[in-house]
């Protein structure tokens, strides 16, 4: 095993800081929540979660909090991803694979547009302010 240099250690530290910052809710106004219960994981939620994280990092979206939760109770449409963007209704997307996860970041988070064909659940119009 090679010895680590000071530069290697600094690079590792910076990488871990970015990973921790990604999950820190401070100064983040947008949330992307991935259901990671056993049914979600069995349906591919780990790959979905990874694709969303990758897309957010690639686009350097520091104001987006990505987090995991347990089962959302919508097992028939796993993997599920909830997106909360200020000024828009909270939306749950169903059957989110890696490609759709990337689209959610591009179109919903960045473009502020709902992806109608993938919406599993959203609040009724009469309760949205």
Number of domains: 1
Question: Which CATH class?
Answer: Alpha Beta
Extract low-pLDDT stretches. Answer: none
Structural class: alpha+beta
Strand order of the largest sheet: 2-1-3-4-5
The CATH topology is given as Glutaredoxin
User: How many angstroms separate the termini?
Assistant: 59 Å
Q: Give the biggest sheet.
A: 5 strands, mixed
Proportion of residues in β-strands = 15-25%
Our Rg estimate from Cα atoms comes to: 16 Å
**SSE order in H/E notation?**
HEHHEEEHE
Provide the helix percentage. 25-40%
Mean pLDDT: 90
User: What is the CATH architecture annotation?
Assistant: 3-Layer(aba) Sandwich
Topology:
Layout: H1 6-23, E1 30-35, H2 38-43, H3 45-58, E2 64-69, E3 81-84, E4 91-93, H4 98-110, E5 119-121
Parallel strand pairs: 1-2
Antiparallel strand pairs: 1-3, 3-4, 4-5
Helix pairs in contact: 3-4
General description of the model:
The chain has 129 residues and is an alpha+beta fold. It has a single domain, classed as Glutaredoxin, CATH 3.40.30.10. The chain contains four helices and five strands; from the N terminus they run αβααβββαβ. The chain has helices spanning 6-23, 38-43, 45-58, 98-110, and strands at residues 30-35, 64-69, 81-84, 91-93, 119-121. A five-stranded mixed β-sheet has the order 2-1-3-4-5, covered by helices on one side. Helix 3 (45-58) crosses helix 4. It is globular and about 55 Å long.
Q: Would you summarize the structure shown here?
A:
With 129 residues, the protein is α+β, with helices and mostly antiparallel strands. The protein has helices at 6-23, 38-43, 45-58, 98-110; strands at residues 30-35, 64-69, 81-84, 91-93, 119-121. It has a single domain, classed as Glutaredoxin, CATH 3.40.30.10.
């Amino acid at each position: 095993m090679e010895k680590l240099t000071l530069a290697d250690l600094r690079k590792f530290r910076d990488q871990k800081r970015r990973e921790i910052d990604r999950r820190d809710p401070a100064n983040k106004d947008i949330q992307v929540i991935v259901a990671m219960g056993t049914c979600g994981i069995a349906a591919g939620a780990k790959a979905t979660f990874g694709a969303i994280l990758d897309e957010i990092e690639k686009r350097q979206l520091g104001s987006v909090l990505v987090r995991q939760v347990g089962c959302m109770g919508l097992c028939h449409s796993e993997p599920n991803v909830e997106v909360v963007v200020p000024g828009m209704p909270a939306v749950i997307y169903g059957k989110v694979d890696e490609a759709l996860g990337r689209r959610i970041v591009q179109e919903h988070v960045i473009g502020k547009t709902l992806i109608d064909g993938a919406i599993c659940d959203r609040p009724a119009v009469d309760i949205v302010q």
